[in-house]
Write a structure and sequence with these properties.
CATH topology: Serine Threonine Protein Phosphatase 5, Tetratricopeptide repeat
Number of domains: 1
Helix content: 40-55%
Radius of gyration: 14 Å
CATH class: Mainly Alpha
Keywords: ANK repeat, Repeat
Structural class: mainly alpha
Order of helices and strands: HHHHHH
ANK repeats: 53-88
Strand content: under 5%
CATH architecture: Alpha Horseshoe
Largest sheet: none
């Protein structure tokens, strides 16, 4: 369904809502990896696009409970997401984690984009 919508109108991937969120933000927030995969494959995809609060898709993925966002972390990092970005309120990725996630750490390590305040 999403693929056919994007094929018919690629600009749908860049439409912002009232909170300045794009479809990528919502797809990550609701853990729809299949949709995330389709959105990151679109032309001119920006892995560091911020919503109105300065949150990137990577930040949203790290905020999901029980490490549910971990599968999307590697995908976003492979697309060039910056793990050191800070939100408008000064939050960094480690502050979103309840506890260190091996998958997150491994993904960040492989991408060489470790946050400066990585949790222990």
């Amino acid at each position: 369904m999403v693929e056919s919508l994007l094929n018919a109108n690629p600009k749908l991937a860049t439409l912002k809502d009232d909170d300045e969120r794009l479809p990528i933000h919502w797809a990550v927030a609701y853990n729809h990896r299949d949709i995330v995969e389709q959105l990151v494959a679109t032309k001119n995809f920006d892995p560091d696009v911020e919503d109105g609060s300065g949150w990137t898709p990577l930040m949203i993925a790290t905020s999901l409970k029980n490490a549910e966002g971990d599968p999307m972390l590697d995908l976003l990092l492979r697309k060039g997401a910056d793990a050191t970005v800070t939100s408008n309120s000064g939050q960094v990725i480690p502050s979103h984690l309840e506890k260190p996630s091996f998958c997150l750490f491994q993904s960040l390590y492989k991408s060489k984009r470790l946050p400066t305040a990585a949790p222990i």
